[in-house]
Amino acid sequence: MENAHTKASLFSSAGLSEELLNKLYSFAELPAEEGKKLWELILEQFDDLLVKILLLAAIVSFILALFEEHDDQTSAVTAFVEPFVILLILIANATVGVWQERNAESAIEALKEYEPEMAKVIRSGKHGVQMIRANELVPGDIVEVSVGDKIPADLRLMKIYSTTLRIDQSILTGESVSVIKHTDVVPDPRAVNQDKKNCLFSGTNVASGKARGIVFGTGLATEIGKIRKEMAETETDRTPLQQKLDEFGEQLSKVISIICVAVWAINIGHFNDPAHGGSWIKGAIYYFKIAVALAVAAIPEGLPAVITTCLALGTRRMAKKNAIVRSLPSVETLGCTSVICSDKTGTLTTNQMSVSKMFTAYSTSGDDIQFTEFTVTGSTYEPSGQVYHNGRQVNCASGDYETLTEMATICSMCNDSAVDFNETKRVYEKVGEATETALVVLVEKMNVYNTNKSGLSPRDLGNVCNRVIQQKWQKEFTLEFSRDRKSMSAYCIPSSGGSAAKMFVKGAPEGVLSRCTHIRVNGQKVPLTAKMTQRIVDQCIQYGTGRDTLRCLALGTIDNPPSPQGLDLEDSSKFIRYEKDITFVGVVGMLDPPRSEVIDSIRECRHAGIRVIMITGDNKNTAEAIGRRIGLFTEDEDFTGKSFTGREFDDLPPEQQSDACRRAKLFARVEPTHKSKIVEFLQSHGEITAMTGDGVNDAPALKKAEIGIAMGSGTAVAKSASEMVLADDNFATIVSAVEEGRAIYNNMKQFIRYLISSNIGEVVSIFLVAALGIPEALIPVQLLWVNLVTDGLPATALGFNPPDLDIMDRPPRSASESLISKWLFFRYLAVGTYVGVATVGASMWWFLLYEDGPQISYYQLTHWMRCEIEPENFTDLDCAVFEDTHPNAMALSVLVTIEMANAMNSLSENQSLLVMPPWTNVWLMSSIALSMSLHFIILYVDILATIFQITPLSWAEWMAVLKISFPVIVLDEILKFIARNYIDGEQDSKSTEDAKFKRLFLLRAIFSVVCLTLLWISYFCWILIPYVPQFMHAIGRGPRVSNNPLYSVFRSVEL
User: Fold this and answer.
1) Is 343 a catalytic residue?
2) Which of 189-203, 204-218, 235-249 has the weakest average pLDDT?
3) How far is CA 1023 from the centre of its chain?
4) CA–CA separation, 105 vs 1042, rounded Å?
5) pLDDT tens, position by position, 290-326
6) Per-residue pLDDT tens for 632-656?
7) Which CATH architecture does the domain made up of 323-349+595-729 adopt?
8) Reported CATH class of domain 4-28+112-233
9) Pick the catalytic residue: 48, 154, 343, 791?
10) Which CATH code fits 370-528+548-589?
């Protein structure tokens, strides 16, 4: 693009003619992305196997309720409660899903923020500059830009009308400082955007200067347009949690379908029972209703709501740590993050330039020169820090170091920036260029005039020392920075008028030193020789290439500047003539320092098995130096194969690129395409990747990564494309969020375990009822109440379980790790089976064994539907007893009480309640109390008892409920003991190799299991032995209870 305007067949002053404009080009802008229609989004929410089964169950229940004959109005209303509640849940879930989808689409629309609305264009046949809409620009148009303008298209610079042209292109390239542009040819055809100094990019801003350029890219052909296209083509994958829940739902759906069909099939012989009016169809419908009830019982309807609540609670805790989560499922994904790809500027570093070292001349001897080196503390714009020499604090106002006063004066006067205190954020911020702001802060730290700072406000503290210097000197004018001389200077006169004017100069060491004739040594002006100059250059090289890779600025003065009347301030090419005979004063070295907490966070990531990769647009040497300082690299570690530039990465074949992503710790000088490619390679290796970014250029990679993390100070596009926003732009916050994600996953496993074992219990109870042929122990409306309300509260409270102390000492779990392992499934099955047996057992206890109950026989209970047609087997028995609501109340009360005990079991996956007692989670205890209170309300409030078809229980019945429920704690303690010691427990590798130890280990395991099992059996015997005579009578093999002497003995023992 050496002569871009001639290639477009136009003159730089004329612009495109209307004829050429209409003939060659059409208008271009970023096209609007056609989003999904509302009805498509709604249908997508129901594209889930569990949801489809629930929806089918609701429709079937509604149809059955609609055509079923009802005895009264109350029963008619009750019949419709179940389908109504299920539909309500599904609609609520669909609403949340649609809302989240709509928010996700805002990422692309946010790009419109960076589309300039208007442009200043020069066209043939028009007088001067005209304003047109930016979307009407075409390639070949000549555009004029000036300070404050937003670049309307991708431009090739033709002419710069100001001394310098600075562009803030941080939204596109991530560069923290504005970039100086020029019109020279960039010969490298593969230059990255950061190196295209002769181009302006659409959406970036003019920080200073005025220029004209020719349009070479509009719409999707611009750099920002390419990002827009890449974002639109990036598909959002489901999170690991969503994938696991999908797999779990598929497995559960298959099991439910098999059990439902089995329950319906094993009762085919009962379809013609007289209880169904002798109609095979009515019998089939009756057992079909039971199968539907089984499906409702098996599906944890409350699970989506509990997961959402748990994730929302996690987001609140993260927000307190400055991590704002935009996508709820990503909270859990953080827990399995294995690679963090972090930007350098502002995340690993403070993004606040700070002077850390400086030197002046101490003495000279011939051509030899000795330096006095100083170190400066403080790594932000806060004007607090100290100056040290050889480990001792220096009083810069003492007069021992005269040159420091002159350095402070140069830093303050040859400067157009300042520090401001943000009252809202309570932090100091830069006003102007970052490098100049660092010099302003250095002056405050040096305090060369011993200014009294006591009693000053934070805002005054930011510039008090600079104001003292600026009161002593008056700036007349500034010779702005230019590329040819690599320096700037300020012409100043003393306010008192007591001494001559001076020019204070600062710039690149090589540029300033080439025009220096003297050097300041302890206040004296000494001639500067070539060898001295080389010593200063060598010292600057050492600063620039050492461990810190400092950016050096040389400071100097012109003691006898030319008269202002003889200076041509309009022609910047003459400035180099005026800046001569400079006296070298010193050098300051600055850097964007690492955040103080990053080193510990990197170490914590290493302990947690998380790999950290730095990805930055800065140059490689600077990035490597920062990498050493933060512990990403050790002091002596070789960078070979672990540090790459974007160009070096591109030059590798695909196989080596993939291998590089396995080993690399640093990628420097990268472009957006590099970030996306790195994420793809990491994902192909099975890594769960968290990617940070703040600019528009980062958006595609943020969207592609499993966890996109935007900076709070970043662009709206980056935030919209991310799952999490860091309010403080701090890498340590990411590590805290990962820890919180791991804790949330552990808690989710606990409440899923709690809910699933409860649902298995409900399935077992319904299956036993159908298999034994006894009256319904639980009806659908009761199951819905338990699943949504009674279980939901403790399950939500389990999300407050405190994290394990060693949670960040474990490696990240695999994304393919099953949500439910074989051992966990066995535990669910064992606990769930007991829940089901106990629930049905409570109902049967009331019929067979309860003193105040009917005390019927086992045959009568299992053949209850023949009561009216076989009176000879049901003598002295009113068939209405089988419609009594006491058994339902017993079953429901046992189910609720067991599940409250099971909630306490779920405090920890393996820790005993003796080690982690229930009161460690006060929210859980409160939720258990609330759930039991709600159960008492529906039990003892008449209208609710009627709806739920239950009745109040007596004291004796409640005692039976507690005795039946308590063993679930003993059972789970046995299972925890086994898991803790023999399943998940880690044994010493050397000990396990010893055969003798293995035998002892096995014997101890068997002995422990046997003892705990005997303990459980003993408890059962204590409960059940008093009822043995009654049960023997119930099954028709023993005398009546009143005539059985054993009963009296056992009863007295029990009391």
Assistant:
1) yes
2) 235-249
3) 51
4) 75
5) 777 666 666 776 666 667 667 777 777 888 888 887 7
6) 998 888 888 999 998 899 999 999 9
7) 3-Layer(aba) Sandwich (3.40)
8) mainly beta
9) 343
10) 3.40.1110.10
